[in-house]
Amino acid sequence: MMLFFRVSEVGKCMRFLYFTRVLGRLEDISSKPEVVEGKTLHENFQNEWIEQVDSEAKQEEEAMFLHDKFVVRGKADIVSGDKVIEIKTTNKLPPRPYETHVRQLNFYLGLFKLEHGLLIYLLRNGNGRREFEVGFDEGMFLNDLRRFEKLYECLTSFIVPEKEPSPLCNFCEYRFLCDRMK
User: Quick check: pTM over 0.85?
Assistant: First the structure.
């Protein structure tokens, strides 16, 4: 059975990804105001980048990794020259990039075979941004690829992955189920 994974899932809790595939989403987040707002900020920034920085840049550039058992695909926010740019919207600018975002950008760098990327955080209110340079880390890329392999094995053998506790557990829609399992 061929499965499809998304680059945006890199770094997310494997148990969350398992439950999402087995049970489906329990809540529709696509129409939440912060999601709609984030999409608008992304589009505006992408358009500004192309108009003001690099008219040759490509937005929503698709990339794909073909494994013999699954596919990992995604759309990088911007591919500009020799770098991939990922845009994240937030209520507060972080002092350093979030690990899951670095891993996502790193995976894109591996797929596009580029050495450098830029992670850009935009404030939801439009009044600030912070940028972080990210260099390609092959070890991280291979580790995340192994995580997709493990997720594939869990899904095809119906084995729930190990719990990966984090502060995000408090906001997880599957917390009620996860807390009842080992």
Answer: yes
